[in-house]
Amino acid sequence: MTQYRIEKDSLGEYKVPADAWYGIQTARAIDNFPVSGRLPDADFVRAHVTIKLAAARANLQPGWLDQLRCDAIVAACERILNGEFVDQFVVDRFQAGAGTSHNMNSNEVIANLANVALGGQRGEYAPVHPNDHVNMGQSTNDTIPTAIRLALLAKLPRLLAEVDSMAAEFEAIASREANTVKSGRTHLQDAVPTTLGREFAAYAWILRRAGSQLAAARPLLCDIGLGGSAAGTGLNTAPGYASRVAAELARLTGEPIVAANLAGQMQSMHDMQVLSSAIRALVLELTRISNDLRLLASGPRTGLGEITLPAVQPGSSIMPGKINPVMFEMLNQVCYQVLGQDHAVALMTQAGQLELNVMMPALGSALFDAMDWLTHAMRAATLKNLRGLVVNRERCATFVHASVGLATLLNTQIGYSKAAEIAKLSEASGRPVRDIVAEQGLMTAEAFDELVLQAANGVGQAAMSG
Question: Is residue 316 annotated as part of the catalytic site, yes or no?
Answer without folding.
Answer: yes
